[in-house]
């Protein structure tokens, strides 16, 4: 599938499910109270989405609180290749001033989104700074994809921006040090639910594995990171991009779909919570990356 | 300076009072501890009397004051009554500044936390004498917490207070003082406490024998049934870190009782007014001047403001740290780690944008952080910085000489200018910083640490990094010699030898003897190697902090640093053979 083959109707479908996912995060976030656990919140997001017609997942909702937003501790760059049970929602309870991240990837009628939303109950200056700085990554990524630079180079540019900011690129704690991954259009088979394994939806993962197989046979990588395999121009299609910054136990991210065509690229939707936040803080639009 | 002797009588007990410079204002009253008399203040009193009206007196039972027979007459209430009578006599109108040591400090807490006395005491400098009531609460809360680590603190304090139990044994302490301890006491002070030339105290036997009643009259009652003693009086704690009788943990809860609290830990033993009179004089004068100025707490001189303490107290609270090359890599991470642990930090770098970012992050971590843009190879810039700190009576407790540049290429193609540049940044900066701030540290009387960041290259010959390795070997030897020299001044010197750290140093390294394209290519290759090794600057920073807290004088970071060190030591011939290969090329 390439973006050229995605119809306007398809793009609308993807945009709708991304909005739904962000609506879910905002609705659940609005009700967050100190004392609630990661598992409670993840479950709440799951039922909210199911109530709104979600029939499959790329992955079921995750929630991380406190220093788990920065994957501090055991999750290292190399531990278990990043496949780590610590990603799954745990019993950590939310406290006032504690940062949190909500991450969910629902599918509906074959359209999939993958979003990341962060916030805090109360105030957290470090989190504010991280969330402000995340703007530069959104601009840098789009600029360099438009220049059709190799994906690995763009990922390394993200790494250097992190170094300049004094942050750690914590998306490197994800499987395969993923800065972004492909999202494919699934068949709308009309079923109410689909099989998932250990929080991951089988159909979406099958697409990703197929992409990986294609890569081994000489095709492009379905995973966008700093590695050699991603040393090629941006592949047309949809990419769920998720820069994740960490600073001494506080982490922040956003995640949204980037549309790449043969010649151009654009964010599927500018009306997302983090962009609205930058607007309200007078940071948007930013002229250029530092 | 003339000493004026007088006697003040309180309920029939005659107290022997001495004062200097009665025309001056304000008045400083100093209260001695056990087993001393007011003579323990002689050195400090004479120095302070150059500017202030200074008063000392022999506590009842000590020196030339009367010694009532009944133990009850030594209760804190009576001792506070004596103090009140003395200040009413020597400074009837104006509040006095109180300075007290050991039992003098213990008894003074009684006056300081008496609301009726709050207007009579302008400030309180307390040395090695916690309030018995605060201590009672401190012990009670730790025992209630149910945590083994808290129990350990209590046991530790009880071990330091072994003599108190002994003092409750009938006849024990008096017998010791009567059988020669009084004569031995000056040499005990000299040998055990490091008090140089302790003068024999004419009333030593009486002070030792009678003073035991202080413990018997007050200890058990106050510790087991403590009262809530709060005070609004500004309190300055001077904490001698080598005190054998009071542990520093005992003071951790003090802010709850005395919210206007300044605390400085100094490198001295229990009798610091005898061993370090000038240090005590400096601290007391600074505090008295500030309180007399009437300024807000946040307008205090910077070195004093740093010492103000609250419930947010952390490991490096009250300390100033200087870090060079703080704009990125190891320097930035070290700056942030120190900031996170409560230190005030000054970051030094030549790149203003990178440095500003580091400072912003340090401030986000809650630190008081300042940027200093300068070229570390410039002696004049260092002197200006040192002079600025000195003008504020300020000085660092920690200096991290981290700034460094990389350079690679054949020796014969390395120009004199290349050499000057790398020697300036990598070696001269360490010399300038250590020399100027080492002088300040030696003077300040606190424990201080200089950390010099060398490299595994310091003990690893290579044909490709002659200039770099030479500067780092020099830094290592410089540190080894400084360590030996500065040990007597209480300054520790730590050498850090990291391996291949992904700090961005390769992006800024010079590769001499190359055209621009060749240099870029070499640089990219080196950067890729460093990225593959992926040893983080954070790992080095945490190695540095571990060394500051611990006792290692040389820290290796990264497995390659250990391997190369081993190779150089046990297989030097092999190391020299390997040096001939261009491994990075």
Automatic annotation (TrEMBL), chain A:
Q: Which CDD domains match?
A: APP_MetAP
Keywords assigned by UniProt, alphabetized: Aminopeptidase, Hydrolase, Protease
Q: Which InterPro entries match?
A: Creatinase/aminopeptidase-like, Pept_M24
Superkingdom of this protein's organism: Bacteria
Q: Where is the Peptidase M24 domain?
A: 14-262
Q: Name one GO molecular function term.
A: aminopeptidase activity
The protein here is known as Xaa-Pro aminopeptidase
Q: Which source organism does the UniProt entry give?
A: Zhongshania marina
UniProtKB/TrEMBL annotation, chain B:
Under InterPro entries, the record lists: AB_hydrolase_1 (IPR000073), AB_hydrolase_fold (IPR029058), NAD(P)-bd_dom_sf (IPR036291), Sc_DH/Rdtase_CS (IPR020904), SDR_fam (IPR002347)
Q: Where is the AB hydrolase-1 domain?
A: 26-130
UniProt keyword Oxidoreductase present: yes
Domain of life, per the record?
Answer: Bacteria
Question: Which Pfam families would you find in this protein's record?
Answer: Abhydrolase_1, adh_short
> What keywords sit in the KW lines?
Oxidoreductase
Any idea which GO molecular function terms this record carries?
Answer: oxidoreductase activity
The record's NCBIfam families line, in alphabetical order, gives: PRK05855.1
User: Sorted alphabetically, which PANTHER family does this protein's record hold?
Assistant: OXIDOREDUCTASE EPHD-RELATED (PTHR43391:SF12), RETINOL DEHYDROGENASE-RELATED (PTHR43391)
Q: Hey, which family's this protein in?
A: Belongs to the short-chain dehydrogenases/reductases (SDR) family.
Q: What is this protein called?
A: Short chain dehydrogenase
| Organism per entry | Zhongshania marina
Top-level taxonomy: Bacteria, Pseudomonadati, Pseudomonadota, Gammaproteobacteria, Cellvibrionales
């Amino acid at each position: 599938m390439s973006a050229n083959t995605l119809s306007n109707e398809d793009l609308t479908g993807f945009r709708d499910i991304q909005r739904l996912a962000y609506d879910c995060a905002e609705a659940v976030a609005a009700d967050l109270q100190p004392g609630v656990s990661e598992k409670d919140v993840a479950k709440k997001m799951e039922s909210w989405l199911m109530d709104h017609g979600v029939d499959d997942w790329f992955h079921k909702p995750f929630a991380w609180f406190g220093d788990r937003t920065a994957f501090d501790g055991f999750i290292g760059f190399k531990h278990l290749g990043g496949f780590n049970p610590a990603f799954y929602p745990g019993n950590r309870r939310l406290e006032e001033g504690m940062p949190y991240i909500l991450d969910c990837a629902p599918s509906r009628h074959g359209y999939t989104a993958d979003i990341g939303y962060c916030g805090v109950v109360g105030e957290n200056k470090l989190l504010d700074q991280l969330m402000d700085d995340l703007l530069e990554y959104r601009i840098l990524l789009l600029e360099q994809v438009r220049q059709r630079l190799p994906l690995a180079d763009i990922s390394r540019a993200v790494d250097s921006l992190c170094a300049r900011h004094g942050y750690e690129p914590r998306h490197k704690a994800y499987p395969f040090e993923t800065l972004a991954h492909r999202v494919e259009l699934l068949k709308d088979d009309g079923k109410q639910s689909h099989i998932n394994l250990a929080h991951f939806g089988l159909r979406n993962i099958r697409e990703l594995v197929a992409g990986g197989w294609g890569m081994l046979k000489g095709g492009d990588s379905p995973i966008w990171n700093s590695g050699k395999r991603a040393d090629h121009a941006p592949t047309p299609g949809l990419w769920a991009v998720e820069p994740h910054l960490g600073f001494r136990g506080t982490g922040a991210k956003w995640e949204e779909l980037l549309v790449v065509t043969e010649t151009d690229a654009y964010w599927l939707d500018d009306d997302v919570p983090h962009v609205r936040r930058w607007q309200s803080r007078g940071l948007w639009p930013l002229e250029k990356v530092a | 300076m003339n000493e004026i002797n007088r006697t003040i009588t309180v309920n029939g007990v005659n107290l022997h009072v001495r004062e200097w410079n009665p025309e001056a204002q304000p008045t400083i009253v100093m209260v001695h501890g056990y087993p001393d008399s007011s003579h323990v203040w002689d050195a400090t009193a004479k120095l302070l009397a150059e500017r202030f009206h200074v008063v000392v007196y022999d506590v009842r039972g000590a020196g030339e004051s009367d010694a009532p027979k009944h133990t009850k007459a030594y209760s804190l209430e009576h001792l506070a009554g004596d103090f009140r009578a003395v200040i009413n006599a020597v400074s009837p109108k104006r509040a006095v500044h109180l300075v007290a040591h050991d039992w003098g400090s213990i008894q003074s807490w009684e006056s300081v936390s008496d609301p009726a006395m709050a207007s009579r005491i302008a400030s309180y400098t307390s040395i090695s004498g916690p309030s018995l009531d605060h201590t009672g609460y401190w012990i009670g809360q730790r025992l209630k917490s149910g945590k083994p680590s808290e129990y350990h603190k209590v046991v530790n304090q009880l071990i330091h207070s072994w003599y108190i139990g002994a003092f409750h044994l009938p006849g024990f302490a008096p017998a010791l003082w009567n059988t020669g301890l009084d004569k031995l006491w000056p040499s005990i002070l000299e040998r055990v406490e490091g008090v140089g030339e302790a003068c024999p105290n004419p009333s030593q036997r009486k002070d030792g024998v009678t003073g035991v009643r202080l413990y018997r009259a007050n200890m058990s009652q106050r510790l087991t049934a403590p009262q809530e003693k709060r005070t609004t009086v500004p309190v300055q704690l001077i904490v001698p870190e080598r005190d054998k009788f009071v542990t520093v943990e005992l003071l951790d809860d003090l802010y709850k009782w005395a919210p206007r609290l300044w605390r400085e830990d100094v490198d001295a033993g229990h009798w610091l007014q005898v061993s370090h009179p000038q240090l005590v004089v400096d601290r007391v004068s600074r505090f008295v001047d500030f309180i007399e100025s009437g300024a807000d707490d946040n307008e205090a001189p910077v070195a004093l403001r740093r010492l103000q303490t609250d419930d947010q107290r952390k490991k490096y609270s009250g300390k100033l740290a200087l870090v060079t090359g703080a704009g990125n890599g190891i320097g930035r991470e070290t700056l942030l780690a120190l900031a996170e642990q409560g230190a005030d930090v000054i970051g030094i770098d030549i790149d203003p944008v990178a440095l500003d970012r580091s400072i912003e992050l340090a401030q986000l971590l809650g630190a008081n952080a300042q940027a200093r843009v300068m070229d570390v190879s410039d002696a004049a810039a260092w002197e200006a910085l040192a002079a600025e700190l000195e003008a504020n009576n300020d000085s660092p407790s920690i200096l991290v000489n981290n700034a460094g540049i990389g350079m690679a290429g054949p020796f014969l193609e390395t120009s004199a200018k290349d050499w000057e540049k790398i020697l300036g940044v990598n070696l001269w900066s360490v010399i300038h910083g250590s020399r100027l701030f080492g002088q300040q540290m030696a003077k300040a009387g606190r424990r201080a640490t200089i950390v010099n960041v060398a490299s595994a290259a310091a003990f690893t010959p290579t044909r490709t990094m002659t200039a770099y390795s030479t500067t780092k070997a020099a830094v290592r030897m410089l540190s080894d010699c400084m360590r030996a020299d500065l040990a007597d001044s209480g300054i520790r010197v730590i050498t850090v030898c990291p391996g291949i750290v992904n700090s961005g140093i390769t992006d800024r390294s010079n590769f001499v003897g190359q055209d621009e394209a060749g240099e870029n290519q070499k640089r990219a290759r080196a950067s890729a190697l460093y990225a593959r090794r992926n040893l983080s600057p954070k790992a080095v920073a945490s190695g540095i902090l571990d060394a500051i807290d611990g006792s290692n004088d040389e820290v290796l970071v990264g497995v390659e640093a250990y391997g190369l060190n081993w190779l150089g030591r046990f297989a030097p011939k092999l190391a020299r053979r390997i040096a001939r290969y261009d491994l990075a090329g």
